[in-house]
Specification:
The chain has a single domain, classed as Up-down Bundle (Methane Monooxygenase Hydroxylase, Chain G, domain 1). Helix content is 89%, strand content 0%. It has two helices and no strands. By secondary structure, it is an all-alpha fold.
């Protein structure tokens, strides 16, 4: 899997996790407004989603740095061919 494919896969999973958070926001809001407890499974899954999102965002930044480094190396090699 290329670096870009890895980035795309992580971004796709981030979007899925964010959609889950968005889709369950109403449960948290409703519970808060009505002084009812939120289902513990929902809270756990929401926390897991946030952890995964943060982890994937960090990994994406790392992969983007790797891509930038590879581009710099390729540009140096290209320049050396003309010397």
């Amino acid at each position: 899997m290329t670096l870009q494919e890895q980035i795309n896969a992580l971004e796709s999973e981030i979007l899925e996790r964010k959609a889950y958070l968005s889709n369950t926001d109403y449960k948290v809001i409703k519970a808060k407004e009505t002084n009812v407890d939120v289902d513990p499974d929902v809270l756990t899954q929401r926390q897991d989603a946030r952890v995964t999102i943060n982890s994937h965002e960090e990994r994406i930044e790392e992969l983007k740095r790797q891509v930038a480094e590879l581009i710099q190396v390729a540009e140096l090699i290209d320049e050396e061919q003309y010397l």
